[in-house]
Amino acid sequence: MYRNIKWLEPWNSLCTNENLFEEELHKELGKKHILYNKKVSIIGRRYDCDDFLFEIDNIDFKFAVVHLTFSGKEESEAYPKTKGYKDLNDWINRCMVPDYNEFK
Q: What is the DSSP letter of 58?
């Protein structure tokens, strides 16, 4: 479904095991985190840092950029840092395009 995204640097689709990043997210989420116990699907990542784009099911926003810590354990309530977007166009306009403009 998201294979037709026209990715802009530094964002891109994943070229590695998608399950690895979804599993890491679930390890890091504490019970008070907004994504706790939500179904997520990874879509892409920012390759110059540890930011990942997830589609979220059953929440006020449909997409989120999450900065994974790769600690392999539950983080405090403030981590992993997460920013929500109402839809894919919202993410493109408020995240990917500005990131591209800063990156180039």
A: S
Q: Is 66 exposed, middle or buried (0-12, 13-18, 19+ CB in 10 A)?
A: buried
* Structure tokens that stand for 103 in this block: 């990156």
- pLDDT tens string 54-103: 999 988 899 999 999 999 999 988 899 999 999 999 999 999 999 999 99
Q: Rounded to the nearest 10 degrees, how much is the dihedral formed by the CA atoms of 35, 77, 47, 41?
A: -10
**Cis amide prior to 98 (ω within 30 degrees):** no
Q: Using alpha carbons only, give the angle 8, 88, 72 rounded to the nearest 5 degrees.
A: 80
Residue 104 CB neighbour total at 10 angstroms: 8
Give the domain ranges of the chain: 11-103
Give the global pTM. Answer: 0.94
Checking if the pLDDT of 10 tops 80, the result is: yes
